[in-house]
Structures are given as C-alpha cells and as structure tokens.
Specification:
By secondary structure, the protein is mainly alpha-helical. It has one domain. It has six helices and no strands.
Amino acid sequence: MLLEVVLLFLIVIAGTSGELCMSRAMKTIGEVKDFRPMALFRVIVRAMQVGWMWIGFVLMIVAFLALLGALSMENVSFVVPVTAISYAAGALGGKIFLGERVSPQRWAGVALVCLGVTLVILGRN
C-alpha cells in the first residue's frame, strides 16, 4: 500500500513538474510558428540547449516509470483517475512557477477534478 502511494505521488509530482519545466523551456525558446521539417528541427535543437527541457525530460521519465509500476500493482480504472489530481498540481504550478493567471472558472474545474479523484479513492475496492 505504501509503495502504491509513493508511486502515485511520483506520477503526479514528477509528471507535473516535468510539464512545467518543459513549458518554461518552450517559453524561453519562443512560440513555434513554422511547422516545416527544417524549422521544427531548428526548434528541437534550440530546445535541447535549454536546461529546463532536460530537467523536464528526466522528470517525465520518472513519472512514466512510476506509472508502469503503479499499473503493475493496481487497476487502470483506479490509477488513471487518481493521477488526474495532476490537473490541480498543474494549475497551481502554472500560477506559482510560471506566473500564469488562473481564472475562477479554471479553479472551479480543478475543484471538480479533485472531487472526482476523492470519489474514486473512496470507492476503491
């Protein structure tokens, strides 16, 4: 039980942190406007030169490996809904780490997701 909680925690924290780091890296590079193959290649090369991209990449690998571990122990019908709490972590991280504005409607959506996660946990067999 403790290992499952640790893995779920890792999925949410490492996954969300990885997404936030990659978002920060892409904001450093700038908006992608040209989707031709050579232009995309140049964006990828620039992205690989940003430290946040590598940190995000490693964190997302950790989250993926934790997901594999959790799915080996629990039903997918439990793991996937519970990890939806990462939406709340993402909104909070976006506000704090990236300085994004989160509207009241988004916070209401986050609250609904948290309520759904709570129902899944309470209904666990």
